[in-house]
Amino acid sequence: MYVGTLSFDLLLGDVRSLKEKRSVVRPIVAELQRKFAVSAAETGNQNLHRRAEIGVAMVSGDVGHLTGVLDRCERLVAARPEVELLSVRRRLHTDDEE
């Protein structure tokens, strides 16, 4: 079993309130969940208007499939014009780890 996670650090465009921030972040999270069947959520920077952290997680029996899906998730977020992708942290875990 393999578990893969991504953590996206995002700079949002012209956002002036937390309500506007939610209107940018929620569609990204929903699209990740819908297109790739991953778990996704806003995981950090909830009180900052122009910054967001989105976390993605997936479990698979095939590391190749897992890596491919995480790559597509990263491309989707990077292609969104309303956000600037500042950094991505990727982690892969196996059930062999102690």
General description of the model:
With 98 residues, the chain is an alpha+beta fold. It is built from 2 helices and 4 strands, in the order E-H-E-E-H-E. The protein has helices spanning 18-36, 63-78; strands at 2-12, 39-44, 51-60, 83-94. Strands 2-3-1-4 form a 4-stranded antiparallel β-sheet, with helices on one face. The longest helix has 19 residues, at 18-36. The two termini are 14 Å apart.
**Uncertain spans:** none
The arrangement of helices and strands along the chain is EHEEHE
What is the oligomer described by this structure? single chain
Radius of gyration: 14 Å
Q: Largest beta sheet, briefly?
A: 4 strands, antiparallel
Count, helices: 2
Mean pLDDT: 94
Helical proportion, percent range: 25-40%
| Overall SS class | alpha+beta
In terms of DSSP E residues, the strand content is 35-45%
Query: What is the general shape?
Result: elongated
Number of strands: 4
Strand order of the largest sheet: 2-3-1-4
End-to-end C-alpha gap:
14 Å
Q: In short, what is this structure?
A:
By secondary structure, this protein is α+β, with helices and mostly antiparallel strands. 36% of the residues lie in helices and 40% in strands.
Question: Which SSEs are present, and which pair or pack?
Answer:
Elements: E1 2-12, H1 18-36, E2 39-44, E3 51-60, H2 63-78, E4 83-94
Antiparallel strand pairs: 1-3, 1-4, 2-3
Keyword list:
alpha+beta; 98 residues; four-stranded antiparallel beta sheet; 2 helices
